[in-house]
Design brief:
- The protein is an alpha+beta fold.
- It folds into two domains: 159 residues, 2-Layer Sandwich (Alpha-Beta Plaits); 71 residues, Double Stranded RNA Binding Domain, CATH 3.30.160.20.
- The protein contains seven helices and eleven strands.
- The strands form two sheets. It has an eight-stranded mixed beta sheet, with helices on both faces. It has a three-stranded antiparallel beta sheet with strand order 6-7-8, covered by helices on one side.
- The longest helix is centred in the N-terminal third of the chain and has 22 residues.
- It is globular, with a radius of gyration of 18 Å.
- The two termini are 15 Å apart.
- 35% of the residues are buried.
Length: 247
């Protein structure tokens, strides 16, 4: 059973196949969701990120909170494929790359039992801007859940305690997802089912820039004005799922 009226989620975006272009696409997706969150009046907070270049991400996790956030974004979980000419491509060839997205509901602490003895917690200095506090104090938190091998992290909050709480929220969300899918199989199988392996063939949606077309392969619908959608005008896709009865 999913908790009702979920107003807070964890969003994860990871680069898949395609090298630097995959990282750029992961960054584009992350920025699309962030801009859409602003339009919806949601709160968007990056918890941890492994950056690649000016706009790219190898991986990024964020907390998004607001009305109906889970209902609107839950269908984003899966492998997203992009077809376009990369900025680094000199001969004008179209490349195909992927990024995976996972959307996890944040649940109350009592919904998931986490034993302290199952955790390996490490601290480090948070990178990036933030002043002397960030550079001199070990505020970044990394938690390994030993029974499952799940690793979560948070480094954007100013205090070690706040980062630990955020990381625990992410961990509980992941463990809750596993509990829901327990009958399916192992942890690895569950994650593959949700976001795929990142292979080009396992796509839920294709973003074809040369033809200005986004195709969602689950509901069989196409959307145009791709640049506008990537700038956060995501409502056409969200409403298509609602109309299709998939929310």
């Amino acid at each position: 059973m999913e908790p009702q009226s979920i107003s807070k989620i964890i969003l994860e975006v990871r680069a898949g196949t395609g090298g630097d272009e995959a990282s750029l696409f992961a960054g584009d997706l992350a920025h699309m969701y962030q801009k859409y969150a602003v339009k919806k009046g949601w709160k968007f907070s990056i918890l941890d990120a492994s950056e690649s270049g000016a706009r790219g991400y190898k991986s990024m996790s964020a907390e998004i909170s607001g009305d109906d956030v889970y209902e609107i974004l839950k269908n984003e979980s899966g492998v997203h494929r992009v077809q376009r000419v990369p900025v680094t491509e000199r001969q004008g060839r179209i490349h195909t790359s992927t990024a995976s997205v996972a959307v996890l509901p944040i649940v109350e602490a009592k919904a998931v039992e986490v034993k302290e003895g199952d955790l390996e917690v490490t601290f480090s200095r948070a990178g990036g801007p933030g002043g002397q506090n960030v550079n001199k104090v070990e505020t970044a938190v990394r938690i390994l859940h030993k029974p499952t091998g799940i690793v979560v992290a948070s480094r954007e909050e100013r205090s070690q305690y706040a980062n630990r709480e955020k990381a625990m929220e992410v961990l509980r969300a992941k463990l809750f997802e596993i509990q829901k899918e327990q009958a399916v199989g192992s942890v690895g199988q569950i994650r593959r089912e949700q976001i795929g392996t990142g292979d080009r063939s396992e796509k839920i949606r294709t973003y074809n820039f040369p033809e200005d077309r986004i195709t969602d392969h689950r509901i069989g619908k196409k959307f145009h004005n791709i640049e506008k959608i990537m700038e956060g005008d995501f409502d056409p896709i969200a409403k298509a799922f609602k109309k299709d009865g998939n929310t």
